[in-house]
Amino acid sequence: MKHRQFLLLLLIPLLLALLLPGQVAARIYLDITSPELRKIAMAIPPLVDRAKDDQPTDSGRQMADILSRAMELHGFSETIDPKLYGERQDANWQRHGAEFVIQGSYREIGGNFQLELRLLDINAGRMIHGRRYQAPRELVRRQLLRYIDESVEVLTGKKGISNSKIAFVSDATGHKEIHLADILGDNVRQVTRHQYLAVSPRFTRDGEHLTYTSHHRGNANLYQTNIRELKTTRAISRWVGLNMTPTWAPDDNRMVLTLSRDGNPDLYLTERTGKIIRRLTHGEGVNVSPSFSPDGRRLAFVSDRSGTPQIYLMDMRTMAIQRLTFQGHDNTTPSWSPDGKWIAYTSRIDGVLHIAVISPEGGPPRQVTRTWGHHESPSWSPDSRQLVFARLRHDREELCAIFLDGSGLRVLFGDQSGNHSMPQWSPRLAW
Questions:
Q1: Which of 70, 99, 321, 370 is buried most deeply by CB count within 10 Å?
Q2: Taking all residues of the chain, what is their mean pLDDT, rounded to a whole number?
Q3: Are residues 179 and 134 in the same domain?
Q4: Which long-range contacts (CB under 8 A, 24 or more apart) does 307-316 make?
Q5: What are the TolB N-terminal domain coordinates in residue numbering (predicted)?
Q6: How far apart are CA 138 and CA 223, in angstroms?
Q7: Sign of dihedral through CA atoms 356, 357, 363, 366?
């Protein structure tokens, strides 16, 4: 009797793992911050159609491609070419060097897709994350990205960033307008159609809204639009002069932005509607480009009060201001990392603009970019591991992304025409 009870206790975890895949699976953590980290080998064969004898299809290949690009985005894996193992889901994975495999199947019934996805640890010989989804065709991509973000969390302990977007300025239409794309560079949409100058996109903390400055009404007004619909746009700050570059407090009910209503560009704390709560700077030079710390207690901004543009920090409780950057004569566009550990900014180094990072507690800065050309306007990924920025080469601006350690630089949206600038990486999106 005791022996049977002992066997039952051993079987319970196994039964739970089979019945509730992904809920009780063992977590595997990769130290993605380690400088010695090597990329893991990942295989993602085409998803098979259960209604067609589990054969790979064009739809299955497209879904596998989305999964592969989303996983590689995170920088710790490289995908084995499916042609090397004949696109089979039952390949000899160890022979092909795969350490992890994502296997998937689907079935389409009445316009709805039933997806099954499994992440396998080949060396351990077990599934470590499994999910079933049901979604209409237009939402399948979202579920695939959701699965990757969950799998990244299982592998690294930190949720992925596949379901995020990048807003940027493009002159592809002949005018500088705001555009929006998902992080893989697909589904690029034009947000503004003012046929005039629109610049400086900024996301609210919840990622639901996008603010930007447009001159189409004869003044540099601040506007806001819901990025789910891209239909309703309203002005939220229309003071005479500049209304631009807002940074949102953690509760999304207050923002700090640059206004020049009294002549000099200064920082103001306002309500969400643009109603002024308090003036924060008072004409000690030009004061622009605010960026809240994640907890909202401090504010990074640019001021030339010392004679050259430098990064300063303001304590939002005491209003005390201290200078942060001392190296270089031109330090601008600060961006506080979501984890609070770094402030990225544009720095002129030997006459060339580069991206640098510095601790908010001070100390020596660290140069991130080193390729030729001018690099500016950094913005952080939601996991604080990557930066997106604009790079100018041969009189053409393009968007690039790079990891915090300076590795993995790549051009984004290279198939899009026009010049691209002022990128902003959204938070993780819940939809």
A1: 70
A2: 91
A3: no
A4: 311/343, 311/345, 311/358, 313/360, 314/280
A5: 29-127
A6: 29
A7: negative
Count of the separate structural domains present in the chain = 2
Residues 239, 293 share a domain: yes
- The percentage of residues in the chain with a pLDDT greater than 70, rounded to a whole number, is 93
The residue among 393, 401, 381 whose CA lies nearest residue 419 is 393
Q: Each residue of 339-374: pLDDT tens digit?
A: 999 999 999 999 999 999 999 999 999 999 999 999
How far is 54 from 423, CA to CA, in rounded Å? 42
Instruction: Give the global pTM.
Output: 0.91
CB 117 within 8 A of CB 145: no
* Nearest in space to 76 (alpha carbons), one of 183, 157, 184, 166: 157
User: What's the CA dihedral at 347, 351, 354, 357 to 10 degrees?
Assistant: -30
Asked if 111 contacts 137 with a C-beta cutoff of 8 angstroms, the reply is yes
Kindly state the DSSP code that residue 149 receives in the 8-state scheme: H
Instruction: Look up the domain containing 103 and give its range.
Output: 16-32+39-156
pLDDT at 415: 83
Instruction: Report the C-alpha gap between 71 and 13 in whole angstroms.
Output: 29
